């Protein structure tokens, strides 16, 4: 924040506080400088949270983060890398001061990271991870000549996002995750397919300008057999590496369609960034041992009416689909089960821990492959002092909803679809919604009414109808991308 914005906002806050003696000057939703409203039934925040729409009119905003000066960086799929200077009046009363396109490249589609010192920015296309030198004090178009390619040879059809996670406790270690190229991608049974896995690269070894990029297959394998692990996170206290996985669609077991409530989406643990799994033991190895099961084994969500349930519980792995030679026993013995399982098709896309590691927030993009939509929300998961979830691994209620769609029947056409999450320096949680082209801020505050700038939850507005994807358009899109819609 610059002095120019600090001073009026302090003045404003103290005037308001004097006038109302409110604990949170923004709890009433008053924010004359930002009157944006969503053009669909407004999301509903849980008690203790408020939120506000801050930016709209983007193409397909995905990964987001804050630079060292409080600038918001957004990968806007179909546009490139965009910087927002924000006017901050406290609470959720934030508005866009200036929007600057840093990189025009419509192939940048999701991944973004910033170096520890804030001076290098990373972003990814389906094929490459790039870096650019960055100066947060004067954000302007980044010089294309200064762009370097760090990782390459990742092109494949299907899932095209390449999420980037730069370790905080081991600067220079960059984790890059890749999904499958089809719903049941059988080649991912081989680790050298390079798909459905998370690998790490020591980018500090790429010292000179002439050092070539890594091939994706050069990376250390943190996990494979992960269908589409879009969200990755490092727990800031213990250094645990976690991912959220989008599991398979249209699944059958014993010739029965089980896709509505199975398999579960997954929260997977990949050991600690220092190479241990806890108890002082060594990581299962960055290699072949780290297989999480896809495309042979899946995690059980609902046990209701499940064919040949046997003694399986929620969170256990089961054999299905292509796994003709597999049994539920071999799935549980030979592959790593999730630490938690989430409702099928909720589509978790990002995970971010609080600074004290006691909670992780997860964005659920929402289902397309289910008659009654699910997801379209942001939830939190509680973690204990050992850096593990407090809920047991067979839990079906490990998530606490923070922001939800008021009427899931309207989704996906008339709902926000949360994707990227980011904390700002004030402890507010931001998220992007790709289908609506929007960015929102959320804040914890006593007595918040959970509204967005007075939009009241009844629709209204409508100026942005052009940004809305109608259900028919979404289904058409699903067909075009081969039914891989996250
Ligand atoms: C940027 O530079 C790369 C080579 O480093 C080139 O392939 C690409 O076309 C350039 N993009 C623009 C917009 O000039
Ligand atoms: C990464 O590479 C640098 C430079 O070669 C080296 O000093 C460092 O130890 C490496 N880090 C890891 C975790 O291997
Ligand atoms: C990328 O793949 C091509 C084709 O297999 C290969 O020739 C090239 O060396 C690879 N690039 C790197 C950086 O390894
Ligand atoms: C389920 O039963 C099989 C054998 O019938 C056994 O090997 C396995 O350990 C059991 N699993 C659980 C979770 O109890
Ligand atoms: C089943 O077959 C696949 C190859 O299709 C193989 O990877 C797997 O190890 C086999 N599992 C068992 C239990 O034999
Ligand atoms: C979650 O479900 C379990 C088992 O039904 C129950 O004991 C527990 O109280 C529930 N927890 C919450 C937070 O609702």
TrEMBL record:
<dbReference type="Pfam" id="PF22807">
    <property type="entry name" value="TrAA12"/>
</dbReference>
<feature type="domain" description="Pyrroloquinoline quinone-dependent pyranose dehydrogenase beta-propeller">
    <location>
        <begin position="43"/>
        <end position="444"/>
    </location>
</feature>
<dbReference type="InterPro" id="IPR054539">
    <property type="entry name" value="Beta-prop_PDH"/>
</dbReference>
<protein>
    <submittedName>
        <fullName>L-sorbosone dehydrogenase-like protein</fullName>
    </submittedName>
</protein>
<feature type="signal peptide">
    <location>
        <begin position="1"/>
        <end position="22"/>
    </location>
</feature>
<keyword id="KW-0732">Signal</keyword>
<dbReference type="InterPro" id="IPR011041">
    <property type="entry name" value="Quinoprot_gluc/sorb_DH_b-prop"/>
</dbReference>
<dbReference type="InterPro" id="IPR011042">
    <property type="entry name" value="6-blade_b-propeller_TolB-like"/>
</dbReference>
<feature type="region of interest" description="Disordered">
    <location>
        <begin position="445"/>
        <end position="465"/>
    </location>
</feature>
<feature type="compositionally biased region" description="Gly residues">
    <location>
        <begin position="445"/>
        <end position="464"/>
    </location>
</feature>
């Amino acid at each position: 924040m610059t002095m120019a914005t600090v001073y009026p906002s302090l003045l404003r806050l103290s005037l308001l506080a004097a006038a109302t003696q409110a604990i949170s000057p923004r709890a009433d939703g008053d924010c004359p400088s930002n009157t944006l409203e969503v053009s669909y039934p407004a999301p509903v925040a849980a008690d203790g949270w408020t939120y506000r729409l801050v930016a709209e009119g983007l193409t397909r905003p995905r990964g987001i983060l804050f630079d060292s000066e409080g600038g918001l960086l957004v990968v806007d799929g179909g546009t490139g890398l965009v910087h927002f200077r924000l006017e901050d009046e406290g609470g959720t009363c934030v508005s866009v001061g200036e929007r600057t396109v840093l990189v025009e490249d419509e192939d940048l589609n999701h991944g973004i990271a910033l170096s520890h010192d804030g001076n290098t920015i990373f972003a990814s296309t389906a094929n490459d991870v790039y870096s650019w030198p960055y100066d947060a004090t004067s954000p302007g178009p980044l010089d294309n000549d200064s762009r370097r390619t760090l990782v390459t040879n990742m092109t494949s059809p299907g899932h095209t996002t390449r999420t980037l996670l730069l370790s905080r406790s081991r600067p220079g270690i960059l984790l890059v995750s890749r999904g499958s190229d089809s719903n049941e991608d059988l080649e991912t049974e081989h680790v050298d397919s390079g798909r459905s896995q998370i690998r790490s690269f020591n980018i500090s070894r790429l010292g000179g300008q002439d050092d070539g990029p890594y091939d994706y297959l050069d990376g250390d394998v943190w996990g494979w057999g992960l269908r589409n692990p879009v969200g990755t996170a490092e727990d800031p206290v213990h250094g645990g590496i976690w991912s959220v996985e989008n599991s398979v669609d249209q699944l059958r077991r014993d010739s029965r369609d089980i896709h509505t409530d199975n398999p579960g989406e997954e929260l997977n643990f990949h050991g600690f960034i220092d190479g241990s799994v806890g108890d002082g033991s060594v990581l299962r190895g960055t290699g072949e041992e780290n297989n999480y099961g896809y495309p042979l084994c899946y995690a059980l969500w609902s046990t209701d009416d499940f064919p040949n349930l046997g003694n399986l519980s929620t969170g256990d792995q089961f054999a299905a689909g292509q796994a003709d030679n597999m049994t539920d026993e071999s799935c549980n013995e030979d592959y790593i089960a999730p630490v938690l399982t989430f409702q099928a098709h909720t589509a978790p896309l990002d995970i971010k821990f609080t600074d004290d590691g006691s909670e992780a927030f997860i964005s659920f993009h929402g289902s397309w492959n289910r008659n009654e939509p699910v997801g379209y929300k942001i939830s939190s998961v509680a973690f204990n002092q050992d850096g593990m979830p407090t809920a047991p691994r067979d839990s079906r209620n490990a998530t606490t909803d923070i922001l939800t769609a008021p009427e899931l029947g309207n989704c996906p056409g008339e709902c926000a679809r949360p994707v990227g999450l980011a904390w700002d320096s004030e402890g507010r949680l931001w998220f992007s919604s790709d289908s609506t082209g929007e960015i929102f801020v959320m804040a914890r505050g006593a007595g918040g009414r959970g509204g967005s700038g007075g939009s009241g939850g009844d629709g209204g507005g409508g100026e942005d109808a052009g940004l809305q994807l109608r259900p028919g358009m979404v289904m058409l899109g699903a067909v075009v991308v081969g039914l891989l819609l996250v």
